[in-house]
């Protein structure tokens, strides 16, 4: 049986939750990935691992000098950590079939874990069955992997219509010039009894909220200001204060600002005017709006009459 050396490295591997590539390293006790662009390192112990799955993602064609086309199957290494790490899922992309064979032997021998195999659904179907596995929502299409959603990455879950469930996802504000998936809508077809369909949708929504921890945050509301005019972002908003953040609910968009991202606050009177501006200066693009992807605001500006300050 072929085994890897004490420390083995695999280059040109895409890291979890970022568009960057780097080196994946594995030893008898540790595994990790180093971002080639930023130098950031992700590292965990073998004892942190709960399950390991190799997911066939796509095939890559390489043309050789002899004119022969070599087709390579590429795989994603999906590592789910255990309860001590909140069942976090790490996904590394770009492994060849030979890499998978060597890693499978390594994990079996040193981590004492049996690796599973899966593949991405390619039938073209857009319906399937779902389940919640620890902290992950999984949609299976024709017995293959369709969609995996880490529930901790969910920003909001709503029911916009009688058959639809909308899931808003958090965006990575530290990564720019990248495409982010910000919303997914699931349709639960209507049943004979419309009330049954609504109950099923509501149950699914509440499960998402519970798994993501959003149901706990709802009870943390401290204060609520109605119909407050904002200059940035422009419009009238309902401002909700919680223990961890300020939420701006507008007619078209909602924004969230964590207190930990506030750098400074200012009260600036407008010259020759009875108005004063209250300014919240934040870290870069910290005032996030899920519907707008990465394009957050760096300032929140609220206008008041001086006598109301």
Features:
309 residues; mainly beta; PH-domain like; 21 strands; 13% helix
Description:
- This protein is mainly β and 309 residues long.
- The longest helix has 19 residues, at 194-212.
- The chain is built from three helices and 21 strands.
- Helices cover 13% and strands 49% of the residues.
- The protein folds into three domains: 8-118, PH-domain like; 147-216, Roll (PH-domain like), CATH 2.30.29; 221-305, PH-domain like (Roll).
- β12 and β13 form a beta hairpin.
Q: Write the element-wise H/E pattern from the N-terminal end onward.
A: EEEEEEEHEEEEEEEHHEEEEEEE
Low-confidence stretches: 291-295
**Looking at this structure, what is the CATH superfamily of the largest domain?**
Pleckstrin-homology domain (PH domain)/Phosphotyrosine-binding domain (PTB)
| CATH level 3 topology of the largest domain | PH-domain like
> Any idea what the shape is?
globular
Q: Quick one: how many beta strands?
A: 21
Number of helices: 3
- Largest beta-sheet details: 7 strands, antiparallel
Strand % is over 45%
Q: What's the level 1 CATH class of the largest domain?
A: Mainly Beta
CATH architecture of the largest domain: Roll
Structural class: mainly beta
**Main sheet: strand order:** 18-17-16-15-21-20-19
GO molecular function: DNA binding; histone binding; nucleosome binding
Domain FACT complex subunit SSRP1/POB3 N-terminal PH: 9-117
Subcellular location: Nucleus; Chromosome
Family: Belongs to the SSRP1 family.
């Amino acid at each position: 049986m072929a085994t890897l050396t004490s420390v083995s490295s695999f280059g040109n591997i895409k890291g979890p939750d970022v568009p960057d590539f780097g080196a994946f390293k594995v030893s008898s006790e540790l595994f990790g990935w180093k971002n080639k662009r930023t130098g950031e390192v992700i590292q965990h112990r073998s004892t942190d691992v709960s399950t390991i799955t190799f997911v066939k993602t796509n095939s890559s064609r390489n043309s050789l000098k002899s004119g022969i086309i070599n087709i390579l199957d590429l795989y994603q290494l999906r590592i789910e950590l255990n309860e001590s790490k909140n069942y976090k899922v790490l996904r590394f992309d770009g492994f060849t079939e030979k890499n998978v064979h060597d890693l499978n032997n390594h994990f079996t021998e040193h981590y004492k874990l049996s690796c599973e195999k899966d593949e991405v659904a390619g039938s073209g179907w857009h319906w399937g069955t779902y389940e919640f596995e620890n902290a992950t929502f999984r949609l299976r299409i024709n017995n293959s992997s369709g969609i995996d959603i880490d529930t901790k990455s969910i920003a909001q879950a709503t029911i916009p219509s009688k058959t639809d469930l909308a899931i808003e996802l958090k965006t990575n504000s530290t990564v720019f010039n990248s495409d982010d998936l910000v919303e997914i809508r699931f349709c639960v077809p209507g049943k004979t009894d419309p009330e049954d369909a609504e109950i099923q949708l509501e149950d699914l929504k509440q499960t998402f909220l519970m798994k993501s921890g959003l149901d706990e945050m709802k009870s943390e509301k401290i204060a609520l200001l109605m119909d407050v005019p904002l200059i940035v972002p422009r419009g009238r908003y309902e401002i909700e204060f919680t223990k961890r953040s300020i939420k701006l609910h507008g007619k078209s968009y909602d924004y969230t600002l964590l207190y930990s991202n506030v750098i400074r606050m200012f009260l600036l009177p407008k010259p020759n005017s009875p108005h004063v501006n209250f300014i919240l200066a934040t870290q870069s693009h910290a005032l996030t709006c899920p519907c707008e992807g990465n394009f957050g605001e760096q300032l929140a500006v609220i206008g008041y009459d001086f006598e109301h300050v």
